[in-house]
Amino acid sequence: MNLALFDLDHTLLPIDSDHEWGEFLVRIGAVDAAEFTRRNDEFFAQYQAGTLDPVEYLEFSLGTLAQFPRERLEALHKQFMAEVVMPAIRPEVVALLKQHQDAGDLLAIVTATNHFITKPIADALGVEHLLAAMPEYDDKGNVTGKLVGTPTLGAGKLTHTYAWLEKMGKELGQFERSYFYSDSHNDIPLLSVVTHPVATNPNTALSAHASLHGWPSLHLFND
């Protein structure tokens, strides 16, 4: 068994699911459009530049989720999946995942986007294991707006991957081949420790780093 890890946004999806969730809430009138769009775009630009404070962003993102009761959130997410996510799933991505699944590899998505947003997406992609920022829930199943544990961003992805493998009684070094597919330079810490890093639809910074270190590049889509 080999290990295949995947970033989600702009790697398996040609969109940023976290940013698109915010845009979706604005579009349907669920949040204040002007203020939410301003902050959402600001955080997205910080992420692209590699300057994002993950805790600050997650407090904003999870605080938005906390405005809605769980049943309302579930209904909103179902609509979001139908209107935004499902049309964005490309056959090239399905084929890549199937290639690893058919080989008997252990697959996981490792994403900085929170678990509430990404769990239905992972399910739609047929990936059982998901490592994502975990919201805190109250005893009624509502999001409190707080983060459980540490963010899954940058070096945090490495921390969460090691902890997940340990819970499964495994270590990264025991896999003959370990893959990590990502588009972002933010993921260089995890890309640097697997045996087969793959710069997937890479941004400019990651493309330069991959070229310097002889990492292969994979272009599943260009948008």
TrEMBL record:
Transmembrane segments: none
Magnesium recorded as keyword: yes
SUPFAM superfamilies assigned: HAD-like (SSF56784)
A Pfam family hit: HAD
Keyword entries, A-Z: Hydrolase, Magnesium, Metal-binding
Signal peptide: none
Protein name per UniProt: HAD-IB family hydrolase
Classification lineage: Bacteria, Pseudomonadati, Pseudomonadota, Betaproteobacteria, Burkholderiales
